[in-house]
UniProtKB/TrEMBL annotation:
It comes from Enterococcus avium. PANTHER family: N-ACETYLTRANSFERASE (PTHR43072), UPF0039 PROTEIN C11D3.02C (PTHR43072:SF23). This is N-acetyltransferase. Keywords: Acyltransferase, Transferase. The lineage of its organism: Bacteria, Bacillati, Bacillota, Bacilli, Lactobacillales. One of its GO terms (molecular function) is acyltransferase activity, transferring groups other than amino-acyl groups.
Length: 168
């Protein structure tokens, strides 16, 4: 399998949205709902960082994606982002998440990010392993932080501190 990682562009949006919906339907990836996802790439992009938005492409098909979102508008947190990584259900376990993660980490450090954080459901063992393999550590458990389909859910808060950015 040869997977190309490239910058996400507007024409990728239908596939990115489709893969996101797969993740939503799993019930183990996000608090987002299908109705909350924008139909517009421009609207979606406005809520995400201008860097680190990648797609994984295999045989001209988008099979995964990554993006960063700012965690705060306060300047003190300008180097802190939240990462999202999704792979097509049929492609999970094939290294696409790792390939996207490596590209995203590189882009984050090139853009002055010193901390990447992620909120992951404790039951999402594959995502936890992916993040831990890439230098993330669990910093806490947020108990009953939000409801998903009328059920209170916990998330684990993970972070990865750069060893090259923000070390002065």
């Amino acid at each position: 399998m040869v997977v190309e990682i490239r910058q996400m562009v507007e024409s990728d949006w239908p596939d990115v949205r489709r893969i996101y919906i797969e993740g939503i339907k799993s019930g183990e990836a996000t608090f987002a709902t299908i109705s909350s996802i924008s139909n517009s790439y421009i609207e979606w992009q406005a809520e995400h960082s201008s860097f680190g938005n990648f797609v994984a492409v295999e045989n001209d098909n988008v099979v995964g994606w990554s993006s960063f979102s700012p965690v705060s508008s306060r300047c003190v947190y300008s180097g802190v982002v939240e990462i999202s990584i999704y792979a097509e259900k049929a492609q999970r376990g094939k290294g696409i998440g790792s390939t996207l993660m490596i590209s995203a980490i590189k882009a984050s450090e090139e853009n002055g990010v010193w901390t990447i954080q992620a909120g992951i459901f404790p039951e999402n063992e594959a995502s936890l392993k992916l993040h831990e393999r890439n230098g993330f550590r669990i910093v806490g458990r947020r108990e009953k932080i939000g409801k998903l389909e009328d059920t209170w859910r916990d998330t684990l808060l993970l972070e990865r501190r750069s060893k090259v950015t923000g070390i002065d």
